[in-house]
Amino acid sequence: MLGAAVITFREVIEAGLIVGIVLAASHGVAGRGRVVSAGIALGVLGAALLAAFADRLNAAFVGSGQELFQAAILLAAVVMLAWHNIWMASHGRAMAREVRALGAEVSEGRRSVRMLGMVVGIAVLREGSEVVLFLYGVAAAGGASGLGILGGGAIGLAGGVLVAVLMYRGLLAIPAGRLFAVTGWLITLLAAGMASQAVVFLQQGGYAAILAEPLWDTRWLLAEDSILGRLFHTLVGYTDQPDGLQLVAYGATVLAITALARMVRVSHQRAQTAFATKTRFG
Amino acid sequence: MELRIENHRFTPAEIVVPAHQPVVIHIKNLDATAEEFDSSALKVEKVIAGHGEGSVHLRPLAPGRYPFKGEYHEATAQGVVVVK
Q1: What count of other Cβ atoms lies within 10 Å of the Cβ of residue A263?
Q2: Which of A41, A87, A239, B13 has its CA 20 to 30 A from that of A212?
Q3: What's the predicted TM-score (pTM) here?
Q4: Which of B33, B40, B52 has its CB closest to that of A58?
Q5: What CATH number should be reported for the domain holding residue B57?
């Protein structure tokens, strides 16, 4: 039972952290609880379907289709996280002051939250499919020990929920004025870590056999496989043996998101200033 | 290189590959339930469905021992890639 709890917990930690960050990042937007819950529900459904049809999908996935799928959904999540940050760059200040019903801003806020909801769904799908396959295999083996192991799985899941709650509460302790700057950075690093992970899948699938040599090895410091290592792996994209292509993907993602967000923020401020000037003297 | 999963064990448990060359491992899961082929040393992580198969591409490796495991049945599913 303990073994099943640990294995399940290790898988759901990543999704739990992402749910906590997304909830904090969307704090104040109306209806975001529903959107995130929908993301989780769809992710669970998708995970169950993926696991149930693993046999049939295997014909398509034989060889390296699975790696392409994993890289594709990770990169989709990267784009959605980037989109959210870029949206926040133009509307962040309004968000921090409690969103009123401002028409276009609210609907754009909802679109941005739907993006985050999809990121949650993707994370739950990825981790959930592994959990479902593991627990199904155990349940198929049957017997009294099977029930104990399913119980262990439930405990592991509860641990994942705890991680989400702790992350969310911890972030909300940050003063409202700084909260969105902090979640903005967390989302940027989350995205960069996912881009780095996508690269590893592409290399594993034989689609990107370049710059694959690990540049350093910090397993002595923190093993990526450990619980703490997995936390940092998700939060900041920590990996104990990064290769060149991973570093390029990581750096490019951070640069792209911060540069695009800055460009949008500056252009938005210019538009606001021009509008204010025009209405004053027009 | 061929690798089989049977009764939650890897056969062969030790794979020898040449150094500094990319290698592809074809994994066949003869069990009814899924296994996750996992190795942080090899930077590889892949789920193989029950009665399924899949391939993983290894980067060119320096001589040494690179352990791998089946994450769903760690107690019995252990192996190592020996690079010479």
Answers
A1: 12
A2: B13
A3: 0.89
A4: B52
A5: 2.60.40.420
